[in-house]
Amino acid sequence: MKFKIIKSSSKNLSRIGQIETTHGIINTPAFIVGGTKATVKALTIDQIKNLNAQAILANTYHLMLQPGAKIIQHADGLANFMGYNGPTFTDSGGFQIFSLGLAYKQNLKDMTNSRNSTQKLQYSKGLINITDEGVEFKSHLDGSKYFMSPEKSMEIQHQIGADIHMAFDQLTTPLADQSIIEEACKRTHQWALRSLTKHQKLNQQHQKNQQPEQALYGIIQGGRIKDLRIKSAKIINQLDFDGFGIGGIFEPTEINQVLNWIIPRLTIDKPRHLLGMGAQPLDLFLGIENGIDTFDCVAPTRQARNGALYTSNGRINIKNQQFKTNYLPIDKNCYCYTCINHSQSYLHHLFKANELLAYTLASIHNEYFIVNLVDKIRLSILNESYQEFKKNFLINYYQESDFINKFI
Amino acid sequence: MKFKIIKSSSKNLSRIGQIETTHGIINTPAFIVGGTKATVKALTIDQIKNLNAQAILANTYHLMLQPGAKIIQHADGLANFMGYNGPTFTDSGGFQIFSLGLAYKQNLKDMTNSRNSTQKLQYSKGLINITDEGVEFKSHLDGSKYFMSPEKSMEIQHQIGADIHMAFDQLTTPLADQSIIEEACKRTHQWALRSLTKHQKLNQQHQKNQQPEQALYGIIQGGRIKDLRIKSAKIINQLDFDGFGIGGIFEPTEINQVLNWIIPRLTIDKPRHLLGMGAQPLDLFLGIENGIDTFDCVAPTRQARNGALYTSNGRINIKNQQFKTNYLPIDKNCYCYTCINHSQSYLHHLFKANELLAYTLASIHNEYFIVNLVDKIRLSILNESYQEFKKNFLINYYQESDFINKFI
After folding, report:
1. Contact B44 A337 (CB under 8 A)
2. Residues on chain B bordering chain A, Cβ-to-Cβ distance under 8 angstroms
3. CA A32 to CA A88: how far, in whole Å?
4. At the N or C end, where does chain A have fewer CB atoms within 10 A?
5. For an interface test with B, which of A349, A359, A365 has the most B Cβ atoms less than 10 Å from its Cβ?
């Protein structure tokens, strides 16, 4: 993997770059679409390409349970298994192990009812067995036991064979006691080194077999604690990773503060990925101006399946009665397949009738909206109009000016 | 609507033709894909076009209940509402009224459990109120009461605005007593005339408003009773319809016999549509060689959603364990989007993981398989190789030679 910076902003920490992988180039900043179980939910590969998505991130946890990493390895890796010829990422499995892989009955129900990731993570306490060696956890599908360690995560990720992998880390809820976050952070750093060592061995094997080498990002944790975040950034920065993943940020209001602690401690010549963020436009603006190169998030498709659609004037729920007789597209400024071909009235009908096409058309729109927004931000950095673009966009989108005034 | 015959076979009743509608030409014989609620389930308009489907048939019953015919009228008609610029059909609403619109609680459950349309129809007895004037029925969605008559069906179909409409008929199960079938048949003929009269009035209004006129097919019923079928064919043939719809055939084993009674009584210069048939290849061969021009059936997508996929060697269920590690396409002879891009292993995984993409990819394959089969049959009639093509195809597909020997 190669990374080059094409332009750095003089006004903030944002930069325009290119990540070159075996499967193609990612122009950064970029929003990486979520392909949890080796599929971007409800979308074909052609639809993903047509909405200009540059890369897909799949989840190691989900894929190791179903269909199993070996099935994907025998298909010559994730991209080939999906029928996709673009760049791919996998996460380490850590996030889902700590948030999903716990007790698969009652707790799954509680989790489903809890409203955000922060809450969800609290359920993990005491339900998985964490030692320095690794983590024992239960599959959320059938309750069967698994063991995961940094070495195991590397093995599985190499079997899955995405272009860019993530080191195995320990996640906590930011609401945990400081001592717990501190311990998790320390373990994350030990596991980072073990991940890297194992990864390098596996890459040597690839080299011998004349197969492409894979890239590995180190993960920076530390919750909302300044000292821990700075320490984590410094330690991970010293190791021979190909890039950085920043984990444990859950709310847009944390982004400025936490990235302010981390980014200045990182070498500028490696790409930085903000894990799991990008549910709303504000995440993307704040991430990029603080030096983030890539994002991933499943919220655009998840919200789409609930009928919650992005527009330039904020989010709407297309299931609301008012859209039944509106024959305009979802967003008059949007050029996605759905907005070019279909009306709000038709989308409303498809959702009310529980038609599968509703999920596809809504997902195309939401993914396009977010991918396209990052593309527009990239362009505004290139032509020095970022501040103006940001202000116009956010004022139109959020409307509640009190909240958004803090950020523009 | 115009219909012209390009070639008639010298060996059987099959013919190659063209139906010209306001929204484009249909080369016949053709399989019309089912777009029940103004959407071919799980498929975008682009996917429908790419699998070479030439036209879509939507259901008046479903659309009058949801979103309501006026919503579609205000969108300038069905094609526009769907974002589709090809030819469209609607049925009269009759079939669903007699099979679905009855009692929406217990009976819906019974119907769901019953295995085929023939059985389903038996549940209608006594649960709807049929008079010479029309039918009182209950919505299967919420139990609310509706009244449908030939005039009402024409009004609704003109609001929906497809290119080709169907006359309102009374359906019975072929297992009903002869007297019941006879009565239904008589009413169907009275309703045919009333449908036609109302349709012509509505077309005159279109003419005045310089809007395109719509076409109407008369429906031939009569169950499995020779005299009734012949009488029905003769009566409908004398009326000024644009084409014929043949209803009440449920099994491929009935096709030869029933069409043999009907087709010789019909003028050759109008198109003939076999309603609701095309679930399996045999339906299509037998229909075409007996003079059918178009088919419609929702079975290809319904079966697809259950994982039942057509191949040149018969139907498979992709959810079976054996496909987990098979990296070949579903059918080595198929050139659909799914077979070009994806393996059995990937499809198996998507079904096992309940991923929405499973339904889309499987539906693309099944619709393509059936549409493409009819295209191949058309070609074989053109180049005088029909018998050979038929024999090879059916032997490969059905394998159980005892059953298929009767038909080749």
Report:
1. yes
2. 37-47, 62, 66-67, 71, 74-75, 81-83, 324-325, 327, 337, 341-343, 345-346, 348-350, 352-353, 355-357, 359-361
3. 9
4. C
5. A349
**Predicted model pTM:** 0.94
Q: For B332, phi and psi rounded to 5 degrees?
A: -65, -20
Low-confidence ranges of chain A (pLDDT < 70): 100-127
Q: Distance of CA B12 to CAs A208, B9, B282, B372, Å?
A: 65, 6, 16, 21
Q: Which of B33, B44, B46 to mutate to test the interface with A (most CBs of A within 10 A)?
A: B44
When pLDDT is cut at 50, 70 and 90, the band that residue B102 belongs to is very low
What is the distance, to the nearest Å, from the Cα of residue B38 to the centroid of all Cα atoms in its chain? Answer: 14
Instruction: Name the residue among B46, B75, B356 with its Cβ closest to that of A359.
Output: B356
- Angle at the Cα of A256 (from A251 to A257), degrees rounded to 5? 90
Are the beta carbons of B248 and B277 closer than 8 angstroms? no
Arithmetic mean of pLDDT, B78-105: 82
Interatomic CA distance for residues B243 and A255, integer angstroms:
66
What kind and span of H or E run contains B138? strand B135-138
Q: Which residues pair with A310 in a beta bridge?
A: A315
Nearest chain B Cα to A325, which residue? B71
What distance in Å separates the CA atoms of residue A101 and residue A127, rounded to the nearest whole number? 9
Domains belonging to chain A, first-starting first, are 2-98+139-297 (3.20.20.105), 307-405 (no CATH)
Q: CA nearest A357: which of A322, A318, A320, A392?
A: A318
For B298-344, the DSSP string reads: SHHHHHHHTTEEEETTEEEETTSGGGTT--S-S-TT--SHHHHH--H
A169–chain B nearest CA distance, Å: 26
Quick one: which H or E segment has residue B170?
Answer: none
Tell me the percentage of chain B whose pLDDT exceeds 90: 83
d(CA A379, CA A45): 25
Q: Which of A71, A325, A348 sits opposite B74 (nearest CB)?
A: A325
Say yes or no: ipTM exceeds 0.85: yes
> A231: Cβ–Cβ under 8 A, 6 or more apart, which residues?
A185, A222
| Predicted local confidence at residue B124, as pLDDT | 47
Cα dist from A151 to A57, A85, A196, B357, whole Å: 20, 28, 9, 32
Cis peptide before A29 (omega within 30 of 0): yes
Stretch (H or E) spanning B207: helix B178-208
- Catalytic-residue membership of B296: yes
